[in-house]
Design goal:
alpha+beta; seven-stranded mixed β-sheet; about 20% strand; Immunoglobulin-like; about 700 residues; Serine Threonine Protein Phosphatase 5, Tetratricopeptide repeat; 24 strands; Nucleoside Triphosphate Pyrophosphohydrolase
Amino acid sequence: KMTQQMRDLQLAQARKLPGPSSPNAAKRLYRNLSGKFRVNYTSFDEGSLAGRGEKEKLRKSYLFQSNAALFEAVELQDLDKVQELLKQYSPEELDLNTPNSEGLLPLDIAIMTNNAPIARALLQAGAKESPHFVSLESRSLHLSTLVREAEQRVNELMAQVVNEAPNADCSEKEKQLKAWEWRYRLYKRMKAGFEHARVPDAPTNVHLSVASSSSVQVTFWEPLSVNSAVVTKYKVEWSCSPTFSPLVGEAVIDKLKNLHFTIQGLVSGTAYYVQVSAYNMKGWGPPQASVPPFAIPSNWREYDGRAPRRRGQAEALDHLLSQVKTVHQHCVCHEPCKNQPQSRKHSVSKSLKHLFHPSSKFLKTLKRGLYLTAIFYKDDNILVTHEDQIPVVEIDDTYSCLLMQDFLWFTKVSCMWDEILWLRQCVTVSQSSCSCILQTRFKMLLAISQMQGLLGIQDLGQVFFEPVKDKQGNILIITLKEVKTNQTFESVRWVPICKLQTSRKSVSSPEEPTALDTLLISVQDKLAYHQRSSHALSPGLYLGYLKLCSAVDQIRVLVPEQLPNILCHVKIRSNPNISREEWEWLQKMASVEEPVPTAPEAETTQNHLFQELQVAIKELMTLVNIPLQEAKDFRLYSQEVLDFGGQVSFLLLLPPSDDVCTAPGQNNPYTPRSGFLTLPLQIFELGED
């Protein structure tokens, strides 16, 4: 059947639409694609198209052209064009895994011409080999047929060109002859590539680790030699026997972007042996056993049967909060409010409405006192009032010294922006004691309500870790929030940050800037802090460095400037799980009075953890600028592994017990000099969550 098709085949009809028949034609098509075909289909004038059917037909014609261009780019070994097409179109739009009229796929051509870069690009995009090649014999026969029929076509066209007189038809025949000669050479090269190829070597660096109580993870690298043929898939096999007989299971990996595989559904406490083999067009290569040769699914908690620290805590806190709300709603203190005459109700209602009345406006200048400012930003723009001021409202004009406990209380309130009205009611009820602290906190809640009302939004964002102060006695508490949608606000507008900084006229001297001027000068630093504090770590096991310093009214924790919501850290490995065997070894090390870092037995998970820890400790000490010899008295926290959501876990490295927390005025030999900052412990705990 293929032979008959090839006899009747004209090169101009070898694709779904007439495609390029030579390298020059392919280049012309590339130019077309880089210009006319690259535009978004919706950018055409709607009036120039007869209707949806015509637009869809036009779209399909572009996709057919792109499919032809992909084949030509692979045949011409044009890696840049292949990458451009894969980036521009989806695999479905390119018909990436639909064979052409010769029964070939783009990946077939790439691997049989041994073009490894193009083959890898196609594989990462989801390309497959042709399903027609069910055996080595079928592939060899198919290639021989293509070569033979291309040669036959070349001979036929050559005879016609020689025997016919020069005319228009003869010129067309000469073009076809050149194209078929080029295709004949391509098929011969593909056939030679297939004949010279051998099965690949075994994969390298096959490493096995325990992923959980019911799974293990195997990672591996490509073979050192693929023997003239690109590896297109891998096979992972596992068994309870070192001879792999019988097999418990196997899996074929054909998505090669990340060379790892997690074997799920295993029995805890049972040893599993794992091996990996590679495949190319000549078949499966020899398997490579993992190192260590087996792993036992487990988790460190199984060592002493410990339950997760935070299990049920969030639910318990929500339940406790709902109970508190219920008690306050039925509190005796609220009864007089319910039994007041109608006029009293109107008075209370009016007193609340005044916050949202136009007379309540943002402040333009600061007097001596405590203020709240909200910074909303989107890309390089910031939200300002119609007077081009950052939104500011007054908290207390008689308050010139912000106590740290009041500020930390405010940061906790930021976790309950939607509950401000209820909190105000609670504080109002308790205000009879005339406590100065309660008076201040009630004014904070009033300022929050006013800011929410003026902006028309509840969530004011995250509190910056320290207020901005000036010598005139002004104190600014700052909230930061990134806006990622087209959200509308009241009484404000967007302006570029740089424009705001250059257009605002300072009302203070450079020697004694006001708090607002200081905020405006440093606003980009604060936005950078806010963005960094929301970054998440990639999954893995980390080694963290815990260093505290105390003051009269607070304890501060050392964090990196680039990731202030996490302790100073380095990554140990991508697998976050600590197995029972690894944790047992760590416990033995911690129980020795004078631990000697002797390595465990070779080819065990404990030995791999030992090596990984050695590398991580050296890297961490370099990061925090502590000489390695000074860290000889440091110790690993052996009470638990800190688990964050199951994907990130931490082992903690602690200074000597007397130096974990440095007192005021105490010489601190274990604090780095730059690239780090210290956050109040309560602020760090909020950011960590």
